[in-house]
TrEMBL record:
GO molecular function: heme binding; iron ion binding; monooxygenase activity; oxidoreductase activity, acting on paired donors, with incorporation or reduction of molecular oxygen
Keyword annotations from UniProtKB, A to Z: Heme, Iron, Metal-binding, Monooxygenase, Oxidoreductase
Family: Belongs to the cytochrome P450 family.
Protein name: Cytochrome P450
The organism's taxonomic lineage, starting at the top: Bacteria, Pseudomonadati, Pseudomonadota, Alphaproteobacteria, Sphingomonadales
Tagged with keyword Iron: yes
One matching Pfam family: p450
Source organism per UniProt: Qipengyuania soli
Gene3D superfamilies reported in the protein's UniProt record: Cytochrome P450
Amino acid sequence: MATVADLTVKESSIDPIDVSRKELYVEDTWREPFRQLREHAPIQYVPDSDFGAYWSVTKYKPIQHIESLPKLFSSMWDKGGIAISGDPALLEKWNMKEPMFIAMDPPLHTGQRRAVAPSFGPSEVAEMKAEVQARTAQVLDSLPIGETFDWVQKVSIELTTGMLAKLFDFPWEERHHLTEWSDYGGDVEMIKDDVTIEKRLAKMQEMGMAFAALWQQRIANPGKDLISVMMQSDAMKNMPPEEFIGNLILLIVGGNDTTRNSMSAYAYGLSQYPEERAKLEADPSLIPNAVQEILRWQTPLSHMRRTVVEDTDMFGPQMKAGDKVVLWYLSANRDEEIFEDGEAIKVDRHNARRHLSFGYGIHRCVGARVAELQLHTLLEEMGKRRLRVNVVGDPVRVPACFVHGYKSLPVQLEHY
C-alpha cells in the first residue's frame, strides 16, 4: 500500500484549470484538461469557479487515500456534502437541508448504511435475477430492428426505472416520476440560480410527499421494499422529514444514474471500439469483466466532494479547514499509473475491477451488486439474441460535472 510520502505531489506547474465547467461535459472535451492535471497538477487549488474555490484531485492514489480518511476529509451534509455544489451558506439561505447517509460521517453513517445494506446483499440480489432477466428480455423484444430509436429512453431509462419501482414497491404506472426526481436531485447546475433552486426544492418536496404517503401505507402493510426496511430500522425509523427526503434522493439518484448511464455507455462506447465489441460478441465469458470496464470507462458520477476538517499538508499543498476537496473519479479511472491506455475500452482489461466508479472505503456504493446485475443481464440478453447496437447520431450529454451521462442516443439494432 502507498505511504503518505509516496502521495506527496509537487507544486502545480500550470495555471488553475476549472474542470467543473459544464461545457466540458456537454461537448465531451474533458479528457485533455484532466490529462494535463494528472501530469502537471494532480492536486491543484482552483480559486474561482461557478461553485466557488476548491481543491481538484485527479489521480487515483491520492483520491483513494482521501477516501480512507473520513475523520480528516468529511462527507457531512452540513459542511457541504458530497457534491461540488454543496455550500453551507446556501443551506442556510434556502433551508435546503437534505441529510443522507452518504453525506454523513461515522457513527451516523454507519447505522443508516447498515440498515439498508442487507437489501443489496448477495442473496437478495440473486433473488432479483429472474425478474431482471424477464424485464430485460421484454424490453429488448419490444425494440425495432433496423429502425432508429433513442436507446436512453427505450432501454436505459426503462430498465433502471423499473428496477427502482421494484426496490421501493412504487406504483408501476407512476414510475416515470422516479426518473424525473432523479434528474432534479442529481443536477448540480440547478444549485447556481435562485429560480432553479426553488424549482428543484419544489420537485424534492413533491417526491417527499409521494413517499410519505407510501410510508403511511407501509405502516399498515410492511413488506420487503426499501421503505419498509427504513421504517423498521432503529437507525432510520424516526428520521425527520428532510432526512427522509435526503435518503430518498440518495437511493433514487444512486439507483438510477449509475446504471442508466452505464447502459448507455455500453451502446455508445462499444460502437466507438468495434474490435472490442467483436471480442465480446465472440466470447460471452468476457461479459463480467466488460461490465466493470464499461463502468470504469463511463464513470457515471464524475466526482465526489469532501470538506477538510482540520489544516493539513499531507500531500504537500496546505489545505485549510473548511476547504472543498473534489475527487475526480472520472480522471482517476484514466490514471496512466493504474490503467494502461485508460481512454480506450478493453473488454478484457486485466484490472478493470479496480475502477473507482462505485467510490472507495466506507462510502462505496451500497447498491453496486444491483447495478452489476442489471448491466450483466443486459449484455447477456443482447448476446443471446445476437443483437448489436449501432450509434447513428451524436449523443446529447448531461450538461453538468456531477452526473456523467446521456440525455439521448440515437441507435439502430442489427443481428450479427
